[in-house]
Structure prediction request, 283 residues.
Amino acid sequence: MLTFAKRTMRLYFRDKASVFFSLLAVFIIIGIYILFLGDAWSQGMEFENADVIMDAWIMSGLLAVVSFTTTMGAFGIMVDDRYKKISKDFYSSPIKRSHLAAGYIIGAFMIGLIMSLLTFVLVQLYMISNGAAVPDFYSLAKLLGLIVLSTATNTAILFFIVSFLKSQNAFGTASSIIGTFIGFLTGIYMPIGVLPDAVQTVVKVFPVSHTATLFRQIMMEPFLNEAFNGAPDEIKADFYKEMGITLSWSGNTIPWYVSIIIIVATSFLFFGLSVLSISRKSK
Prediction:
């Protein structure tokens, strides 16, 4: 099982094109932010630290996106094995199907985790170079824990989705669709708070939206406390809602622990569905 996971990781990192395309959504987000979104949003803010706030906002979204797209890219190896009939060789061996599936899952999880941690280091270096302070130990621990949790949840979701894809064309199409919509689901291309209520409701169903919100709450907290020092709570709450720093349901703000419950529950749900799918195919 672990040997099979190592195989998945070697094949992924050996294929430079696969690594690039799994990070394509991240590159697009950075490009759009540098060319359009950064100046457009920061110029509309009357804060002295508006640039740092926007940097933290976009970088929080990147951390939510990268574990999703890189994990999706890692599962491309499973689709490729199935398409090239390599999986039949594995099935004819003494290895159980459940162990093979676990190998793909562990490999994809480790790839998503490695790429997320690498992105996190680069994000912190970028923020520090632009004048931000090094996160304290408590914030750092929360961010690292959230990276692990979000990667695990994305792995469970994507394994279930990819288990139905049997060709590279289907996988490529699914990757393109996910890469296009991930920026909207995390409120990067357009802040969640400015979307119509019906669209906001749809966005809040996806756990990646809650992940992005939690990243923003942790990374932006020190800058927002400084920016809104002495400001009315109503103004602060409106800004948080508009920028997707908090999510609301029926007019009530969703607490951070509810977002955690949603993320964990989604992970267990899709893991269970994946186990059920594998058990049916093995019959």
